[in-house]
Amino acid sequence: MTLTDRDRAVQAALAQGLVGPRQPVAGLLDVAGIRRSAAELRAAFAEFTAPGAQVLHAFAVKAASLVPVLRLLAQEGIGCEVASPGELALARAAGIPARHTVLDSPAKTLAELREALALGIAVNVDNHEELSRIDRMMASAPSTAPIGLRVNPQIGGGSIGAMSTATDTSKFGVPLRDPGAREWIVRACLDRPWLTRLHAHVGSQGMPLERMAEGVRALYDLAEEINEQAGGPRITTLDIGGGLPVNFSSDAVTPTYREYVALLRSAVPGLFSGRYGLVTEFGRSLLAKHGMVLARVEYAKWAGGRPIALTHAGAQVATRTVFAPASWPIRVAAYDDAGRPKTGAPVPQDIAGPCCFAGDLVAENRPLPRLESGDHVALLDTGAYYFSTHFAYNSLPRPGVYGYAPAPDGTFAFATVRTPQTLEELTAESGADHANALRSLALG
Ligand SMILES: *Cc1c(COP(=O)(O)O)cnc(C)c1O
């Protein structure tokens, strides 16, 4: 059997003890793969944009909120899209310059807005109330931070409701097709010389590319209308968001950035004319294919005639997959105790996690070589949104995350991205320092 790089990385991770009886689950990231995707993203836009056009690719930090990942991407020329004080702190810890950072959150506080304007971070305003706040801030302390308005083009949703940000009633941005909204947006931009950007992120996984392009088209048309009325380039930059879907059913990378940009090029040719600076905010498509969760099979059992593998990867690391399995199915690869790919006839079986609720399954009735205790499962394509959406159910600790790359001696070198959470840290987060707090309150 020929081994893939992924298979060999699993073997090396087990040989080096990153996953074993004491640390039964970890995340692994393929560093070369992340670099490759970043390069493909840059190349796709570079190929289609006019020479000299300003393009900032800002990685959506929520997809992998890990400082070493942000810094790796920065080395590849990619900035950060942040949506909370925590994400901004991570971007700053990674050394991302303010001019490569974009703040998008639907509920920014006054303090967050003040900080962003003071730092010169690009801010995308979500709604009319937030715009009034910025008006007051600009009047008292003018800032040169780029400011944009998030627009919801209301072009409809995709196949996953929770991921669809451009429905009629989506909570994000100013709804472009509501009565009077377009006129309000145009006026708002004409009245404010510092409001120079428009932003739309029309949704993530499950959205057809054509619909995404329709959203970008609506954004572009709006910018053209504003600039025409302004008699000059008032809107100078278009932030087209992220949302390129990821294929979770095989190793194929599809759609590619190039396909999406080519489609945008034909749907919105003016976007690439160089008259507008561009910002993108891809998350999932940069990281998903380059990560896996590797977990030990603790026990193998039967129930009602069905084999069940009890592993250490469940809802705590694969929250969306466990709670919405129809929307977020993932591939599972089976390895033996030494990390060799399991062979043998596929048998439908449940791959269960360690959480104490019956639905804690990452795959149900999945045909795989029969798993036994001491084997391992790898949850594939989990590089985005799996290491950043830990679910603290059952006080299961956040697992370690390690980056890997081929070493000169033919094996793999690993670097720690995040240390496994210790029980001391977990206890402290659960109020250990306040152990007596409730007892003494009751005595008062
Ligand atoms: C989540 C999000 C993104 C990234 O979406 P992906 O599907 O991961 O590419 C980009 N922009 C905004 C505003 C987001 O909320």
TrEMBL record:
Cofactor(s) recorded in Swiss-Prot or TrEMBL: pyridoxal 5'-phosphate
- Give the record's keywords alphabetically: Pyridoxal phosphate
Tell me where in this chain the Orn/DAP/Arg decarboxylase 2 N-terminal domain is found: 41-287
Q: Any coiled-coil ranges, and where?
A: none
Any idea where the Orn/DAP/Arg decarboxylase 2 C-terminal domain is?
Answer: 289-383
- Which Pfam families does the record associate with it? Orn_Arg_deC_N, Orn_DAP_Arg_deC
Tagged with keyword NAD: no
Question: What InterPro entries does the entry give?
Answer: Ala_racemase/Decarboxylase_C (IPR009006), De-COase2_C (IPR022643), De-COase2_N (IPR022644), Orn/DAP/Arg_de-COase (IPR000183), PLP-binding_barrel (IPR029066)
PANTHER family, sorted: DIAMINOPIMELATE DECARBOXYLASE, GROUP IV DECARBOXYLASE
| Family (UniProt) | Belongs to the Orn/Lys/Arg decarboxylase class-II family.
For this entry, the protein name equals Diaminopimelate decarboxylase
